[in-house]
Amino acid sequence: MAISGFQDFMYPFLQILKDGKEHRLKDLYKELAVYFKLMEEEIEETLQLENKLC
After folding, report:
1. Rounded to an integer, what is the distance from CA 51 to the centroid of its chain?
2. What pLDDT is recorded for position 14?
3. How does pLDDT run along the chain (54 residues), one tens digit per residue?
4. Cα–chain-centroid distance for residue 52?
5. Which of 1, 31, 34, 52 has the fewest CB atoms within 10 Å, i.e. the most exposed one?
């Protein structure tokens, strides 16, 4: 499932954060990947893009 845009992404992201606890970015990625039912290839592609941006 592709994430179509910022607004589709923001709601589940905020739902994860609403518990008020600190979250590691790596854990957020995993939870969001599950939520969006991303395939392994999509996850790897996203992580590679992030590494290029950092």
Report:
1. 14
2. 95
3. 555 678 888 999 999 999 999 999 889 988 998 998 888 888 888 777 666 766
4. 17
5. 52
